[in-house]
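Q: For a teaching handout, I want to show students what a protein-ligand complex looks like in token form. Below are the inputs, and the small molecule is magnesium ion. Please produce the holo structure.
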Amino acid sequence: MIPVTERIRQSMVSLHMARALETLDQTLSRLEKGEISAIEAIDELLAEELNLREGRRIGVALRTARLMPVKTLESFDFSFQPSVDRHRIMALAELEFIKRAEVLHFLGPPGTGKSHLATAIGVAAVRAGRSVYRCSLADMIEALTKAEREGRLTEKIRFYARASLLIVDEIGYLPITSGGANLFFQLVNARYEKGAMILTSNRGFAEWGEIFGDPVVATALLDRLLHHAVVVQIEGASYRLRHHTDLIPEHTRAHASITPPPPPKRRGRPLKNGGAHQLNG
Ligand code: ADP
Ligand code: MG
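A: Here is the structure, written as tokens, with magnesium ion included.
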């Protein structure tokens, strides 16, 4: 007759319980020494196995969701960004907005933590067992354009519509063609009132007509993206540049508004280029 411990070992092999199998000898020896009870031994073995599997699931899900490198709310320095209400962010990280299929907007100048907070909430969602996908707006539009060209648009929209939380990062950094805006609209429509989104942007909603190169599509987009929405506006200095504040012009330092700075005051004769804005260094 096979001894009980050997039978347990074989069962663990058949059940692919690698971690429990690894821990078995140690747990049994503690049991024999009377350090733990039989019930505690069972609990310990199952907990070890579960921990390993949960860690593995989260690792795979974070990579699939494109949430690497991982950002967390614990690593966000709220004291650096006083315009961000810690309690409000923590409440959002309870993820009720995902159940309600709402849209969460993070608005603010570059470096103020929009992508960090969006990612951190995505990571919290993955840990809670939700499916998440993150991409930049430019990458998504590129992928949708390619899919359309190859006759796979429906499939691709279905892919972006599938996750229970879709994070679209960096709206406003690059201008979008009207074809691209149209594709994004189709996706937003597919998710509308069905799936939650987090959007980050360095530009105000008033500028969406300009970003998407078409005021009509921009209005239709905003109509859906602001219907069930939470807007978190960040006003403050860039965390990236925190050690270089002396190098940054005063008007872009703290409390930079998300509307562009006013055009530089002109002195004397009119500009040769008809007043087109120049990017000053
Ligand atoms: P944004 O998306 O607003 O341009 P990011 O979220 O990418 O800015 O932030 C830039 C970098 O600074 C990232 O590495 C991010 O983790 C870090 N960061 C930004 N704000 C904070 C903060 N308040 N505490 C800790 N790290 C921060
Ligand atoms: Mg960002």
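A: Two things your students might notice: The chain has two domains: 4-64, 86-279. The beta strands are 103-107, 132-136, 165-171, 196-201, 229-233.
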